[in-house]
Amino acid sequence: MNEKIYKTLKSAETEDWLDYHVIRPICYYLTVMFARLGVHPNTVTVWSMVVGAASCLFFAHGCLYYEGTTGLVCNLIGIMLLMVADLLDCTDGQLARMTGKKSRMGRILDGIAGYTWYIPIYTALVVRFYMHHDLEFGWLGIADTPTNTLIATAVVLALALWSGLAGIGPQQRLADYYIQIHLFFLKGEKGSELDNSVRQQEIYDEMKHNPEVSTVEKVFQKSYVEYTQKQEGRTPQFQRLMRRLKEKYGSAGNMPAEVRKTLHDRSLKMIPWNSLLTFNFRTLSLVVFTLIDLPALNFLWEGFGMMLLAGCINRQHEKFCKEIADTL
After folding, report:
1. pLDDT by residue (tens digit) across 186-241?
2. Is 11 helix (H, G, I), strand (E, B) or coil?
3. Using alpha carbons only, how large is the chain's radius of gyration in Å?
4. With CB atoms 3.0 to 4.6 Å apart as the test, which of 40, 46, 78, 298 could cross-link to 55 if both were Cys?
5. Burial level of 276, CB count in 10 A (0-12/13-18/19+)?
6. pLDDT for residue 61 is more than 90
7. Which of 165, 157, 193, 50 lies closest to 113 in space, CA to CA?
8. Distance of CA 27 to CAs 113, 139, 213, 215, 306, Å?
9. Backbone dihedral angles phi then psi of residue 102, each to the nearest 5 degrees
């Protein structure tokens, strides 16, 4: 990777192999184009949300088993749209860093972009199961009657809600937090976006009574307060570590170099695992299950397999935070 591309990254350490060698270089050239056209990073984020959500129209179709070549083409178009959405979602951050157009709204939009893709996609997959479920019914020996179809679809809808509300949402929120924590250990406060809920609540309180701030900004800020509160709720030992650093050194950012190195090295070991909670690995399972015409299995994997993985990562991260906090 050349120096120009490297400078637009948060850090090489927080990028997985595919992002570092393929996605980010492509995004760099998109970034250069958007910068020359004067496109704002937040506009690119909104585009990514629209394109990702639009993929649901194609994922609603059965693939080869149910709709033949037409279905396969539709699913491939859905996959391509999701890839374009990811490219745009990666580009917005690089564009913000290149042009200096960073904003609180951009940070909030970036955090929710993925949700706007998966809500319509998951809805489309539930509808798809309602229309096409011969494989599952055949394996389970269920008679394909209207009543059984409604019951089975209700179960799949419950799985979709579970995998979305208890799976994707918390997992991506946690993965984003661990990236910001690592950047804090690596670069300090100026090199990360490690926000805390107390400060975000103060910002919201200031915005509430300011008539010059739009209602949309206030709603987004309120949602971001809740976002950061949930991140902190999953990481009590990290919060304790930050308090201990503040008590001992006046500020977590003032920690000695040897303490920072220890924290950085322990965090770095977690980053490859944390990457499994982000877009690339998650999308791989979605692609596989849609192409083999078993979208319901994607909900099972997201709701239980990925949840188990996220739980293990959370426990290991909390473990090393506790160990280091105990030594301070």
Report:
1. 988 877 888 889 999 999 999 988 888 888 888 888 988 999 999 999 999 999 99
2. coil
3. 22
4. 78
5. middle
6. yes
7. 50
8. 17, 43, 32, 32, 27
9. -85, 145
